[in-house]
Amino acid sequence: MYGRAVVVLLTNFGIVAFAKHDLPLDFNDIVVYAKPGDAMQLSKLTADENEDLKINCGRTRRQWLSTPYKISAGSAAKLGQFPWAVALTTISQKRYNYCGGSIISKRHILTAAHCFMKYENDQLPCTTATNLDDITEVIVRYGGICLRSDSPPCDGKLCMTARINKIAIHRRFMDDGCIGGFDFAIIEMESDLMFGTTTSAICLPNSSLDLNSAENLFDYGFGDNENGESMSRLNYGSAKIISVGEKTDFIRAGPIHKPKNKTIYQGICVGDSGGGLQGFVKQRVFLLGVHSFGPKTCYSGSPFTVTDTRPYAQLMCDLTGICYHLSPLK
Question: For the Peptidase S1 domain, which residue ranges apply (predicted)?
Fold first, then answer.
């Protein structure tokens, strides 16, 4: 259905100048794609579910290392290091991801809007949002670190599967031809994900979070390796923030440095779109941004762009009932 071009598109387009926009954003600017007869709005968390997220989000059971790891050109994640990381696949290609995402509640995932767009001849600007028939073909893989056990071999836990119910995308992303910012999408699942030792939600930041307070920044995803090969295992890499848009929703980030004894840099690549840029704040892990696009060459060490999640704190609350982050977590 999608093939792999939908992710190549933005990673090959270089650095695009974002149009300026004012925040906060209007709730009415959100377009929800749902099954015929279903309400055109996302299912919201209850007050108790929101309180549970406030207590338990962003906690990982794996000890983190200071050694720089890679997504492309890199090392594999351990089970439980990224319990919020997911892969988006299709029914026909469920062993291979085309985008990533992050669990933000038992029934909501945050990913990139361009993962659900159609492109004519793989060129921007985009034309229209994908049809609902296409959306129902999407499968979420979660709760593990392997999409498949072979080709290449992966000796970790295989990911479970879940189906998508609805998707919410900001109208401005489409109206601006997919190059003017707003590159995020909220996925609502058909049923709640099974949380446990290998599955949990990452914390969302509030709009006033100082990015300088975030430590140990990492990117994660199931994207291609340095040889352009589809990876079967979740990988991650250390990152740094280079700049933040003053009136835009983008963050420019990049690898910290080239690993020793390597001729290529770490970085995001094809298939990493929609995955997360995370950082530690007071022993909790926060989703600072969503992978949007990067340089033409995955391993050049050039900056890549992520959608800043902070401007959308109130919008996330209005749409999903995930509201704990409107006040700073303790």
Answer: 71-330
Return d(Cα 299, Cα 319) in angstroms, integer.
Answer: 37
Quick check: helix, strand or coil at residue 324? helix
Asked whether the beta carbons of 42 and 188 are under 8 A apart, the reply is yes
CATH code for the part of the protein at 5-326 = 2.40.10.10
Q: Find, among 276, 303, 131, 175, the residue nearest to 217 by Cα.
A: 276
Strands 138-142 and 160-170 come out as antiparallel
The residue written with tokens 């699942």 in the block is 189
Q: How many CA atoms lie within 13 A of 216 on its CB side?
A: 14
Whole-number CA gyration radius for the chain: 18
Strand (E) or helix (H) holding 304: strand 304-308
Q: Which residue has the tokens 């600017």?
A: 29
Average predicted confidence (pLDDT) for the chain: 78
Q: For residue 93, give every residue at least 6 positions away whose Cβ sits within 8 Å of its Cβ, in sequence order, or none.
A: none
What pTM did the predictor assign?
0.85
Contact 256, 177 (CB under 8 A): no
Q: Could you give the CA distance from residue 312 to residue 39 in angstroms, rounded to a whole number?
A: 22
Assigned token pair, 255 = 């690898």
| Distances, alpha carbon 34 to alpha carbons 66, 113, 190, 300, in Å | 43, 15, 11, 40
DSSP label of 125 = S
d(CA 183, CA 112): 5
Task: Return the bridge partners of 163, or none.
Answer: 139
Total Cβ atoms within 10 A of residue 175: 11
Instruction: Identify the DSSP state of 101.
Output: E
Tokens representing 174 are: 């489409």
Distance in angstroms (rounded) separating the CA atoms of residues 159 and 302: 31
Q: Who's near 234: CB < 8 A, 6+ residues apart?
A: 76, 77, 82, 85, 87, 145, 146, 220, 221, 222
In the chain, what are the domain boundaries?
5-326
